[in-house]
Amino acid sequence: MAEDITLIIDGVKLTVPEGTNVVDAARTVGIEIPVFCYHPRLRSVGMCRMCMVAVGIPRIDRDTGQCLLENNRPVISMFPRLQTACTTLVSPGMVVMTSTDEVKRAQRGILEFLLTSHPLDCPVCDKGGECPLQNLTMGWGPGTSRFEYHNKMHFEKPVPLGDLILLDRERCILCGRCVRFQDELADDPVLGFDLRGRDWHIISKSDPPFDSKFSGNTTDICPVGALTTTDFRFRSRVWELRSVPSLCIHCPVGCNVNLDMRHREVMRVMPRENLAVNDIWICDKGRFGQHFVESSERLTTPLMRRGDQLVQVSWEQAFETIAERFVAIQRKHGGTALAGIAGERLSNEDLYLFQRLFREVFGSNNLDHRIGTPGDLPDDDIGVMLGVGSGTSLVTLGKGTTVLVIGANPEEEAPVYLLHLHQMVKHGGELVVANVRPTKLDHSATLSLRYRPGTATQLVRGLLRVVLEEAGTKHLSQKTTGLAELRAALNHPMASVVSATGVSEDDIRAAAHTFLQAENAVIIYGAEAMAEGTALSQDLGSLALIAGKTGKANNGLLALLPWGNSRGVLDMGVRPDRGPGYAPLASAAKEREGAGGRKAAEGAVQRGLSAREMWNGVVEGRIRGMYLMGIDPASAYPATRTALEKVDFLVVQDMFLTPTAQMADVVLPAAAFAEREGTYTNAERRVQRVRPARPAPGDCRPDWAMVQGIAEAVLALLKGTDEEQGTAKEPRKKLKGKKREAPGGAETATESPGPSWGYLTASEVASEIAERVPGYQGIAYTRLANAASRGGWGRQPNESFYYGGTCYRNSEGVGIQYPAPAELSGAGFSLKPREVETTSASGGDTRYPFLVVTQRLLYDGDPFLRDSQLLAHVPAPYVAINPSDARSLGVQAGDRVRVASVAGVLELAARVSDEVPAGCVLIPSNLPGAPLSMVQTGLQTRVAVSKVGGRRE
Amino acid sequence: MVLNDTVSAPHLAYKMDEFFKHESCGKCTPCREGTYWLVKVLHRMVEEGDARAGDIETLHAIYQQMAGNCFCLLGESAVMPIKSALNLFPEEFEALVHEKDKRYG
Predict the structure, then answer these.
(1) How far A797 CA sits from the closest chain B CA (Å)?
(2) I need a labelling partner for A118 at 20 to 30 A (CA). Which of A167, A209, A840, A873 fits?
(3) What does A64-113 look like in DSSP terms, one character per residue?
(4) Among the CATH numbers 3.40.50.620, 3.30.70.20, 3.20.20.70, 3.40.50.150, which is that of A147-234?
(5) Segment 825-854 of chain A within 8 Å of chain B by CB
(6) Would you call A931 helix, strand, or coil by DSSP?
(7) Predicted confidence band at A740 (pLDDT cuts at 50, 70, 90)?
(8) Which regions of chain A carry the CATH code 3.40.50.740?
(9) Is A290 exposed, middle or buried (0-12, 13-18, 19+ CB in 10 A)?
(10) CATH 2.40.40.20 location in chain A
(11) CB A325 within 8 A of CB A647
(12) Listing from the earlier edge strand, what are the strands of the sheet with A227-229?
């Protein structure tokens, strides 16, 4: 641990940890030292010379080694020159003076120098109003300049650094923050300096220029208006903006953002500080990829099919039709003839009500959140069970921490985690990266393991062996079972692990050691790991448990699921086999009965159909009605079109008239995340809130309200017909205008199935979730709001704000992370390994010699990227082939190749890359047009590859 | 460096600081901006014969703002020629200001 050091700044005695610099130390007692090049997240370089202060240290008696004293006070010898506070580390007894005449003169001089080459075009500068140079000039600078205006440097303005970021070289004060951010945090060293002296300027060194997924952050930390985004440049003055706290829903990190609004328009998206989630950064997808909200293609009214056309109808008509058709199907074929799929970027409230509708009203567990492709990943339960403990903050990790990243590419799957991992390594943490292919993370990894495709489970079992040998099992809880089975599964020589995985025994032992010895350890696994089946995640769980790295902060598993609320989807039980809170179906049904629901129908306790089974079910006539909420299978898995055409009645609820919606019988227009209330759960189980920033276009409603509209219409219809049959006790009218009761209230089973509907706000749904979903106890909006506004945990250090970046301070709450079951006493865990389902690259079917490896891309075929400049970064569909394979196939980069599997044939442009292992081809899973789904046969697909024609295109 | 009394001190300072301006890497503000500014003023005084009343004061201010504040010794060295010239041969600078058309060289 760092020792505490006491020093005196401007006569104030303070104590700070060793290693603190004088700028940060002064800030702890409210003394401001102006800075430009210094940034708390970056290395100090002392370039701008703005933070000059007078520094002295106690004079030491050479004979005794003691401080010299005079009148009982230490004699201070001042340094002959002023020192830059950002590069001066505190030392015991140091005396710092920040406002002597000499210091003031130096600081005023530096500001005058900076302004000599600054164009002072503040009236047309986007930074004007939130500009550190403006602010520091007001605070420390001279009122007038002696420099002759016509002598200023003039450059062409602006020049593009990349297609998203523009550089105005006149305004640049050459602090180098952007260069250091790219080098140190993003580890994309794409920026640099060119020429020297007054001609010194920033350039992009990469091709394509500014090739980084974090480029937008440089505009935030730029202390002047030199770097601007093409997205926001000249769009608004910053003081006209109204900031609405929100979230980015693109990936499982759940970055906190502010939507900067002018009237109804989202002018820009800015990071909002949250030390537990995104620190002060967001990726470019989060910053530039939110334009879908304002797309002119948004749906605005409910649509209903009349013949070949979809025509506008009223909400009443839409809900009544849906209710009539669903009830008719339910009567004729049973509730299990209805099925629903909900997207993973919807809020918990939407998802909770969606599963309530199916389970309680229709009596069906045919629920899923996946598309139903053969490559659908199995649901990740262990990631919750043994998830990272509450209080985990990847941002603060450093020495003593080991992070094992396996089968994941955080840059594409959860970009901001990449920054955190780089930071962690910089602070002395250990990073073990195990992947099939090289990824960006290898560069900063302390140990990189390259295993053969399909052998991750064997690799982890190798690690388990070492950990089991060294850690023993005495510390395991009584409730841990399956140890014997695990030992049996590990009972083969290490040499076989080495020969199967291709990873040396030394590396396996070293990785296991680092993991075991660490004070804190986190395992991050992504899509490629999950594609190896549940055997791998089971073993990762066992690894964490046996090594004792679960159930506490900064320890446990972290699954990189695909979307912004992928965790919430599982938590809410939108899946065929588990209810809300991962409860088994029977106990979930019992819980509903206990809460006043009617006796569960048979369909409600039987496992429902998964998305894959649903599509087959439609073709076989078992599924007659479908409700798709916020998901577009026709685009993501074109093979579903047959089923979508065949299904008797299809309701699609979306923001856009997607290809799926075009096939629907009724289309309901949904409000975007920026137009509504809701909570989202991120990869670390942190529940966070979005707020309405703009009115929804036309008649759009939040998804939960539409689910409720359908539920109420169905219930009214059921009630009405029951009444006709003389079974109902209450008149139908009462249900329609029914007094809303407390969620989970005391309505009796005869009156209504389950707790009442009739929620007026999303927060009422959230309160019910807090009451009924295990894990979510106490997570209600009131608590979120209260805790934030009262200070407490809602307070953030706001260092970035202080230092003049434009990341927003977080006054709106940082979310609540609910505890993982492993943290609670009494949780048991089975170590019993599961059967490995994967095949390895070698061997197998000679007709299909290549194994498909896949990855998720950040800039993908995602319809949410519409109207975004990022579309230019979305690659055309491609297949990447190893150079040696390409040679033997006679394929060159750019050639068209045919990829064939048992399931289908596909033609794609070839890329040749040595990052793809020999014997494998790489096809990203989420490219536009979803090519991969056409050949996929399962989690692992084998294909044949041949060149199309002899000509190169 | 040995020079005889025919060499103009302002011209010498101008030439030497032009060297430092050319060599300045640009990393720290006082050296980058200070040498640039010094040379701008000296060039106008020495080469263009357009010295003005406030120029001497400005030159004093510029080197004082540089002295002790630079990152490395290059910037500090750039202070020496102009500081010595201004302090040891003030009359030559005064002359530039008062006899605008007088060219040295």
Answers:
(1) 29
(2) A209
(3) T-SBPEETTEEPEEE-SS-EETTTPBP-TT-EEESSSHHHHHHHHHHHHH
(4) 3.30.70.20
(5) none
(6) coil
(7) very low
(8) 303-377+566-733+758-763
(9) buried
(10) 850-947
(11) no
(12) A159-160, A165-167, A227-229
Kindly write down the DSSP assignment for every residue of chain B, as one continuous string: ----TTS-HHHHHHHHHHHHHHH--S-SHHHHHHHHHHHHHHIIIIIS----TTHHHHHHHHHHHHTTT-SSHHHHHHHHHHHHHHHH-HHHHHHHHHSTTPPP-
Query: What is the rounded CA–CA span in Å between residue A320 and residue A583?
Result: 33
Euclidean distance between CA atoms A106 and A103, whole angstroms:
5
Give yes or no for A152 touching B (CB within 8 A).
Answer: no
Q: What is the count of residue pairs from A and B with beta carbons less than 8 Å apart?
A: 87
Q: What integer pLDDT is reported at residue A735 of this predicted model?
A: 38
Q: How far apart are the first and last CA of chain B?
A: 18
CA pair distance B29, A34, nearest whole angstrom: 14
The CATH code of domain A382-559 reads 3.40.228.10
What does the alpha-carbon distance between residue B58 and residue A147 come to, in Å, rounded to a whole number? 9
Residues of B near A (Cβ–Cβ under 8 Å) read: 21-30, 32-37, 40, 54, 58, 61, 64-66, 68-71
What is A4-113's CATH number, 3.10.20.740, 3.30.450.40, 3.90.180.10, 3.40.50.920?
Answer: 3.10.20.740
**pLDDT confidence of residue A950:** 56
What are the DSSP E strand ranges found in A809-932? 816-817, 829-830, 850-853, 878-881, 896-900, 905-912, 920-922
* CB neighbours of residue B68 within 10 Å: 16
- A267 touching B, CB under 8 A? no
Q: Is the dihedral of CA B34, B35, B36, B42 positive or negative?
A: positive
Residue type, A145: S
Taken in order A130, A136, A139, A142, the sign of the CA dihedral is: negative
Q: How far apart are CA A298 and CA A698, in angstroms?
A: 9
Give me the amino acid identity at A211. D
* Token pair listed for A555: 């320890």
ipTM for the predicted complex: 0.96
Beta bridge pairs of residue A244: A259
Q: How much is the pLDDT for B100?
A: 65
Kindly list the domain boundaries of chain B, sorted by start residue. 9-98
Phi, psi dihedral angles at A910 (to 5 degrees): -95, 140
- The pLDDT assigned to A272 comes to 87
Which pair of tokens denotes residue A732? 């139908």
Q: Which residues in chain A are classed under CATH 3.30.70.20?
A: 147-234
Task: Using the predicted structure, report yes or no on whether residue A840 has a pLDDT greater than 80.
Answer: no
The DSSP annotation for B1-24 comes to: ----TTS-HHHHHHHHHHHHHHH-
Asked if A198's CB is within 8 angstroms of B26's CB, the reply is yes
CATH number belonging to domain A303-377+566-733+758-763: 3.40.50.740
Under 8 Å between Cβ of A75 and A67 = yes
The closest alpha carbon to A505, from A493, A517, A523, belongs to A493
CATH code: domain B9-98 is: 1.20.1440.230
**A114: chain B residues, CB-CB within 8 Å:** 29, 33
Q: Average pLDDT in the A585-614 region?
A: 81
- What is the tens place of the pLDDT at every residue in A12-52? 999 999 999 999 999 888 898 999 999 988 999 999 999 99
Q: Which CATH number fits domain A850-947: 3.40.309.10, 2.40.40.20, 3.50.80.10, 3.10.20.340?
A: 2.40.40.20
Residue A602's pLDDT is what? 66
Q: Is the Cβ–Cβ distance between A581 and A773 less than 8 Å?
A: yes
Domain(s) of CATH 3.10.20.740: residues in chain A: 4-113
Quote the pLDDT of residue A726.
55
